[in-house]
């Protein structure tokens, strides 16, 4: 297992699902870019209440940062080319709302605490 932090934009809206035991979870896809400006799709699943609520509040194209455990994978496209992908079990979600909320809690954006 690899602990990781990814940042990107939500692809489509996150969706709530329910497992066989009736426990709900969220799935989402995030489009992230690397240093070479290549796009990578990260398949995200979240089980805990806080990351699920954060994902549910977002819509397609919203900026997002997630931390959790990553599993690298490879898939083959229709032309037979192998492509990398990542699966993430999200433990924490950070959005623009969280940043502005925390900044206002310490006295406003761009101000130093006294």
Task: Characterize the structure shown.
Strand 5 and strand 6 form a beta hairpin. The protein starts with a strand and ends in a 9-residue tail after the last helix. By secondary structure, the protein is an alpha+beta fold. The chain has helices at residues 49-57, 96-105; strands at 2-10, 15-18, 24-33, 39-46, 63-76, 82-95. It is globular, with a radius of gyration of 16 Å. It contains 2 helices and 6 strands; from the N terminus they run E-E-E-E-H-E-E-H.
* Shape designation: globular
Largest sheet: 5 strands, mixed, barrel
Strand order across the biggest sheet? 1-3-4-6-5
Q: How many E-type strands?
A: 6
The number of helical elements comes to 2
H and E order: EEEEHEEH
Helix-strand makeup class? alpha+beta
Let me know the average pLDDT. Answer: 87
Work out the strand percent: over 45%
User: What distance lies between the first and last C-alpha atoms, to the nearest angstrom?
Assistant: 41 Å
The Cα radius of gyration reads 16 Å
Low-confidence stretches: none
Question: Could you give a quick summary of the protein structure above?
Answer:
With 114 residues, the protein is of the alpha+beta class.
Features:
114 residues; alpha+beta; five-stranded mixed beta barrel; 6 strands; 52% strand; globular
Topology:
Layout: E1 2-10, E2 15-18, E3 24-33, E4 39-46, H1 49-57, E5 63-76, E6 82-95, H2 96-105
Parallel strand pairs: 4-6
Antiparallel strand pairs: 1-3, 1-5, 2-3, 3-4, 5-6
């Amino acid at each position: 297992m690899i602990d990781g932090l990814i940042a990107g934009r939500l692809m489509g809206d996150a969706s709530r699902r329910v497992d066989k035991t009736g426990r709900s979870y969220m799935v989402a896809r995030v489009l992230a870019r690397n240093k070479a400006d290549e796009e990578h799709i990260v398949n995200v699943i979240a089980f805990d209440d806080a990351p699920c609520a954060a994902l549910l509040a977002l819509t397609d194209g919203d900026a997002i940062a997630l931390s959790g455990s990553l599993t690298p994978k490879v898939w083959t496209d229709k032309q037979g080319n192998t492509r990398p992908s990542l699966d993430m079990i999200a433990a924490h979600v950070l959005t623009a709302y969280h940043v502005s909320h925390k900044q206002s809690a310490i006295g406003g954006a761009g101000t130093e605490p006294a």
